[in-house]
Amino acid sequence: PRSTLFPYTTLFRSPTTPLNFSKQAVGTKSAAQIVTLTNTGTAPLKISSIKASAQFGVTSTCRTTVAAGSNCAINVTFSPKSEGAKSGTVTINDSASSKPQVIELSGTGT
């Protein structure tokens, strides 16, 4: 599925947002789920930060600038520290808007 958030960027999500992680054993890390960030604008997209909330991790191939027409991958993992349902976010601060782009996350620690 494709979700246009701002005029200059489009987030292609697979699976769709929110990212739902299956049950994960406490103290272990899930396989990564990948979100592709594509700059559909005509100017470079400047990324100042990509951060995940507690119990979720994020790595990225995104540099500080994503050229027009280019994309990068955001890899999200889930590492529960206790049992039960967990929720969180990945927050992307970029030049497309004064408001961050947010990907909702959920998972269950077992």
Account of the protein in words:
The protein is mainly beta and 110 residues long. The chain contains no helices and ten strands. A five-stranded antiparallel sheet has the order 1-2-4-8-6, with no helix packed on it. β9 (84-94) and β10 (101-109) form a beta hairpin. The chain is elongated, with a radius of gyration of 14 Å. Mean pLDDT is 85; it is low at 1-5.
The spatial strand order of the largest sheet comes to 1-2-4-8-6
How far is it from the N-terminal to the C-terminal residue, by CA? 29 Å
> Helical segment tally?
0
Largest sheet: 5 strands, antiparallel
Rg (C-alpha, Å):
14 Å
Helix fraction, binned, reads under 10%
What order do the SSEs take from the amino end to the carboxyl end, as H and E? Answer: EEEEEEEEEE
- Tell me how many strands there are: 10
Mean pLDDT: 85
Strand percentage lies at over 45%
Q: What does the overall shape look like?
A: elongated
Helix-strand makeup class: mainly beta
Low-confidence stretches: 1-5
Which features characterize this protein?
mainly beta, 110 residues
Write the layout of secondary structure elements.
Layout: E1 2-6, E2 9-14, E3 19-24, E4 33-39, E5 45-52, E6 56-60, E7 65-66, E8 71-78, E9 84-94, E10 101-109
Parallel strand pairs: 3-10
Antiparallel strand pairs: 1-2, 2-4, 4-8, 5-7, 5-9, 6-8, 9-10
In short:
Helices cover 0% and strands 61% of the residues. It is mainly β. The chain is elongated, with a radius of gyration of 14 Å.
